[in-house]
Write a structure and sequence with these properties.
Elements (H helix, E strand, L loop, with lengths): L11 E5 L13 E3 L4 E7 L9 E8 L3 E6 L5 H12 L5 E8 L5 E17 L11 E7 L2 E5 L1
Antiparallel strand pairs: 1-6, 2-5, 3-4, 5-8, 6-7, 7-8, 7-9
């Protein structure tokens, strides 16, 4: 019987299609928001007072949040700034790859039609010794899983 080891969550990379990115633009500290929810509608049936039927409507995808140390001169941040400062939106597809020990993809998520909606830089504090992190929040249409 083969032993099952769940994959670790710290070995991953993020790739943006159509973006001339450097090595630093695929490395992130964290990725969150890879979630899908089903919206439902309550329907009451005449004469039935014990429950309401819940019918599925559509899927709902929250924003994707990417965090990393600040990268100066990043193509990814230039793309983000074009959207947020100049209102020039160029949606991109991106992939999130969970990697194994040999740096091969175990699981891949394809994010479709993403564009930035928020960019934030952590606070500066002279009393702390920590890295400056930037947070990029992306809206997208949907994602699918590629095995």
């Amino acid at each position: 019987m083969s032993e099952f080891y769940p994959p670790v969550g710290f070995h991953f990379l993020v790739e943006f299609s159509g973006l001339e990115a450097e090595e630093a633009d695929i490395r992130f500290q964290s990725v969150s928001g890879l979630t899908v929810n089903m919206d439902t509608e309550d329907v009451s049936e005449g004469g039935e007072n014990r429950f309401k039927h819940k019918l599925p409507l559509r899927t709902n995808y929250p924003n994707l949040t990417l965090k990393r140390g600040v990268v100066v001169g990043s193509a990814l941040i230039n793309w983000c700034r074009d959207a947020l400062e100049n209102f020039i939106f160029e949606p991109k597809d991106l992939t999130i790859k969970l990697l194994n020990e040999q740096h091969e993809p175990l699981q891949t998520w394809n994010i479709v039609h993403a564009y930035p909606v928020k960019w934030a830089v952590d606070d500066f504090n002279a009393q702390e010794s920590k890295l400056v992190l930037e947070t990029l929040e992306l809206n997208y249409h949907y994602f699918n899983t590629i095995n």
